[in-house]
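User: Quick sanity check before I run a bigger batch. Here is a single chain. Can you write out its predicted 3D structure?
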Amino acid sequence: MKYLLILLLFVSLRCLSQSGLNKTPSSDEGIHFVKELNWQQIKDKAKKENKYIFLDCYATWCGPCLYMKKDIFTKKEVGEYFNSNFICIEVQMDRTDKDDKYVKSWYKEADSISSLFSISSYPTYLFFTPDGIPIHRILGATFGDPQQFIEKASDVFNPQKSYYGGISEFRSHRSDSLYLRNEIQAALKVGDWRIVDTLRKIYFDVIKNLFDKQNIVLLFPTINSSSDTLFEVLERNIPKVNLILGNSSCEDRLINIVIHELIEPLLERDTILNLVDISSRLTNEYPTLKNELIARVNDRFRSYFVSEIRADISKDTSKTPHWSSIEANWVKRYPSYDFRQIFSDQKMRYYGSTGDWKECGNEAYYLFRHYGGKLSIGAINNICWAYIFLHVEDHKILKQGIYQMEIIVKNYSINEIFQYYDTYANLLYKIGDRRKAIYWEQEAINKCEEYQRKNDINGINSDLKLYLGELKKMIAKEPTWSI
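Assistant: Done. Predicted structure follows.
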């Protein structure tokens, strides 16, 4: 509320004179960002030159920030407009080892800006009067025409469009649902979450029916915490909300919030975690989300484990990674989790990358025998083609690949995924079942041609050309793989 009170003290800013703000453009190209000045000195300079203040909040890792710096701020028309109307300053919001003295001198102010203005996304652009009163805000990069960024910035001089000018009047509109709805949308647009939370609570008390479509559509994107009252309401009414929003939108957002709040912080700590206990806790705390939530949490853990295990493998400089040591370390950190599938998959990929196709094939065989039912059909097809068919001669391993592909081609509706038929046919051909291989290669061709007809594709595409060539080799009893 302190932030809103500050704004309310300066409602009169709408009446500030704009005289002198449109001066003769500078002849130099690009925005001139002032350096070596503190905040008080910037305000003094703005008053003296009768200009407003433009503040670019950026992060060094932010791609859109870099785009704006290189492709928008450097344009002549942008420089002319901003240099004429604003004292411009850049504030680095993150911290790096390469920060110079000036960037470091703004650390404290950067933290204050981030907290006071609830900045969580970059780039965020803030505009102030010469006295340092916030008047406007823009979120995100403007790609394409630089003039569009100038137009967005010009709203600072329009009392009907300046962001903080509109927000500052909320006290006189506490019972006006239309006003509140418009300002919530404006706050969402610029990423001002503190204002979103404040106005949303007022709006929540004003509306008569939360489950009116326009209310759900408005309020749904404002949920960002599991402690939010609205989170609890929606969790109890998931089917009703999904009827309004469609599909499983409600579960998806609520689950993303839980993962962000509870799971991501756990992955950032170097500590022992019991995943069974974590799943039990989530089930008790979020009973209506439990099945999908646990599945998504497991997916997140698996994604994290894979990336971190890969990092551990790359750090091991020995000729062959010490698999047992790496695995023992992970089992110690995460008891109750079965890492064998992940390690088998990573070992297979490692041996494939080093060209040790014997060990690669053995790991693929183990993976299929023990975890084939847990793999996606796309993953099975990729393993069968890239790691088995192209490089393995052992019929035991080839037959395991055939078994996995046979389940797919006979039990899944894959009329447009003709690659699976081709993989199956080539595996059959490699073990010598030529008659059956020719049949399934022809099926691949048929499905590919059917796909082309459905999508009005003329001629022979690359897939169809490949399959026709492989069928020709099978008929001629020639290898379809490199020998």
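The CA atoms of residues 30 and 73 lie 5 Å apart.

User: Great, the batch can go ahead then.
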